[in-house]
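Colleagues,

For the teaching module next term, I've prepared a clean inverse folding example: a structure given as tokens, and then the sequence designed for it. I'd like students to try predicting residues themselves before seeing the answer, so please don't circulate the second half yet.
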């Protein structure tokens, strides 16, 4: 097999490992993301409602399965910072960066 084919075969494995590593890091990080999201003074009922809404009341194995399936389907979640789906934020932001980098590249060539 050629070098390129070997590398192409390795890509899915590397992606799975990186995503799994990210999931594990989020799970072992200190603190409760639900409490941070809800803010101080939130009632236990409200915290439980948020856990249920995001599936955080499920066993970790089920959370991981749903996480991986969501990634495969293109459902990367909802950004709490920007209040919109993450995929939409990435694609809208990336188009701005592409425009900026293309302008910078053209400007840099014109100045040389």
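(Answer key — instructors only)
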């Amino acid at each position: 097999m050629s070098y390129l084919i070997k590398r192409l075969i390795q890509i899915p494995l590397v992606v799975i490992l990186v995503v799994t590593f990210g999931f594990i890091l989020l799970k072992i990080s200190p603190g409760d993301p639900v409490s941070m999201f809800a803010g101080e003074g939130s009632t236990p009922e409200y915290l439980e409602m948020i856990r249920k809404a995001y599936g955080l009341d499920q066993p970790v194995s089920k959370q991981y399965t749903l996480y991986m399936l969501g990634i495969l389907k293109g459902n990367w979640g909802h950004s709490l910072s920007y209040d919109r789906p993450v995929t939409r934020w990435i694609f809208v932001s990336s188009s701005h960066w592409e425009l900026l980098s293309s302008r910078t590249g053209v400007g840099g060539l014109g100045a040389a």
